[in-house]
Design goal:
heterodimer, A: 365 residues, alpha+beta, Gyrase A, domain 2, Alpha-Beta Plaits, Elongation Factor Tu (Ef-tu), domain 3, 6-stranded mixed β-sheet, 6-stranded antiparallel β-barrel, 8 helices, 19% helix, globular, B: alpha+beta, OB fold (Dihydrolipoamide Acetyltransferase, E2P), 6-stranded antiparallel β-sheet, 3-stranded antiparallel β-sheet, 4 helices, 9 strands
């Protein structure tokens, strides 16, 4: 069988809204509706809603679920309370990254939210390491995931739920109802704004989407595509798997030391190598840069300093908020100081760039 | 989507309007839609010579970069200076205010190789 492209439960709604739908990670996904810049600014100024149902959901349960995930993930699962959410990653033995993910802890189970493009790889990786006393289920095809993001996200969603959202802290979740529909509401996101991710069963996806659109009308809510999702995340230096992190990069050099718990209770896959990397010191690090000139640095372009090649670009784009080209890239550790002058090779021309302090954008509320 | 009948097209999504011996060149409504928000355009200078099918510039959108190919050969006699600071004009008005360059034709017979609106429509459907 050739690759069959799947549709999320909201495909018809996207089509009707005039979305440009492209194949992404095996799904037809909306890359944009009205335009990436407008959508980006809407999320920064008010509120937007994203369909991220392509993301994978794995359910892990059983007496040894915590022990299993303590070994499989780099963050400290034992430190995670019921109803708390944790950003984490899976690593290979050599410290390279299998995927980055969110860990949702419930009373009786743990749910991992994984990147759509890595779903099958992640599932096999977990399955290959499964131990007795742990049950692993791929429930990705049952759930839809909606992200409501922006300073007006709480005001929008609060209209539809009895859960007190002002009491829900960042990186915590609650189980309640949204527009009368049973939902898991987490105060998480990938935009650098306040916001929520709402998980519901597929059969309720359309109804929930429409209710949120209606509730957000007074804030001029708009649907936001994957294009703006990418530009939003880059302005706040959130890593994108396949661009900034992959099997050839380790979490320490990617700036993910804060989730790499080398001293937690128990080893994890990759911990030996990562401990050694930390002892010996990094050889390179992911930096943020701004480019002077009219061109966009893109993944794989060479980064030079004083005539020497010192690294490569991992992500780049035109920042709608800063109105200039920005990017991320790995450079040699002795060239990572803020203010270091770089040149980026863009199609045989050299553009000056400067290393700047992350993130490019920080919300002010 | 708009496809003015009076224009000629290329399969690289440029349009050409010929008046006297001068061709005005831009990209089609379809192309701007596919590219999405355009953030930079790099164009040649007046008096540069360009050749049919050679790249004459680049266009950067948020998600993609693309070369611009010349539909005709000749000498550049006009460049749309507005695009330097407001490249988004191409998204808003691809056939009118979003024109890119004007070329004094060196070989009128090259126009025969261009597509009609109907031919181009078939290419992109």
């Amino acid at each position: 069988m050739k690759n069959i492209v799947k549709k999320t439960a909201l495909y018809d709604i996207h089509k009707k809204a005039g979305a440009k739908l492209v194949e992404f990670a095996g799904y037809y996904m909306p890359i944009q509706y009205k335009g990436i810049n407008d959508e980006h600014k809407r999320v920064r100024s008010s509120v937007g809603i994203f369909d991220v149902s392509h993301m994978g959901e794995f359910e892990i349960s059983g007496a040894k679920a915590e022990e299993f995930l303590q070994y499989m993930t780099i963050n400290d699962v034992k430190n995670l309370a019921v109803n708390q959410v944790q950003y984490s990653a899976l690593c290979y033995e050599d410290g390279g990254i299998v995927d980055d993910l969110l860990v949702y802890r419930f009373q009786d189970k743990i749910i991992l939210i994984v990147n759509a493009s890595n779903l099958e790889k992640d599932f096999l990786w977990l399955k290959d390491h499964l131990i007795d006393g742990v049950e692993l289920k791929n429930r990705s095809d049952e759930f839809s995931l909606l992200a409501v993001q922006g300073r007006k996200a709480e005001a929008t969603l609060q209209k539809l739920t009895d859960s007190n959202l002002s009491q829900l802290e960042t990186y915590w979740l609650t189980e309640g109802k949204v527009a009368g529909i049973p939902a898991m509401i987490a105060r998480t996101g990938y935009t650098g704004e306040d916001g929520f991710e709402v998980m519901i069963e597929n059969k309720h996806a359309k109804q929930t989407w429409q209710a949120i659109m209606e509730a957000g009308k007074e804030f001029e809510i708009e649907p936001i595509g994957l294009g703006a999702r990418d530009t939003l995340r880059l302005e706040v230096k959130y890593c994108l798997y396949g661009n900034d992190i992959d099997k050839t990069t380790n979490p320490l050099e990617a700036g993910l030391g804060w989730i790499t718990k080398l001293n937690k209770d128990g080893d994890f896959i990759g911990s030996d190598v990562l401990r050694k990397v930390k002892e010996e010191g990094l050889s390179r690090r992911l930096i943020c840069f701004e480019l002077a000139g009219k061109a966009i640095p893109r993944h794989g372009y060479k980064i030079m300093a004083e005539g020497e090649e010192i690294g490569y670009v991992t992500s780049g784009m035109y920042s709608p908020i800063l109105n200039k080209p920005i990017g991320l890239g790995y450079v040699l550790i002795n060239k990572t100081k803020i203010g270091t002058q770089l040149t980026i090779d863009i199609r045989d021309r050299k553009f000056p760039a400067t290393i700047v302090k992350p993130p490019f954008y920080k919300r002010n509320y | 989507m708009e496809l003015p009948k009076e224009l000629k097209y290329t399969d690289e999504h440029e349009w050409v309007l010929v008046e006297d011996n001068v061709a005005t060149i831009g990209i089609t409504d379809y192309a701007q839609g596919e590219l999405g928000d355009i953030v930079f355009v790099e164009l040649p200078s007046v008096d540069d010579e360009i050749k049919q099918a050679d790249p004459f510039g680049t266009i950067e959108a948020v998600k993609a970069v693309s070369d611009l190919f010349s539909p005709v050969s000749g000498k550049i006699v006009g460049v749309n200076e507005m695009l330097e600071d407001q490249p988004e004009i191409i998204n808003a008005s691809p056939y009118d205010e979003g024109w890119m360059i004007k070329v004094e034709l060196s070989d009128v017979s090259e126009l025969d190789s261009l597509l009609s609106a109907d031919d181009y429509k078939q290419q992109i459907s």
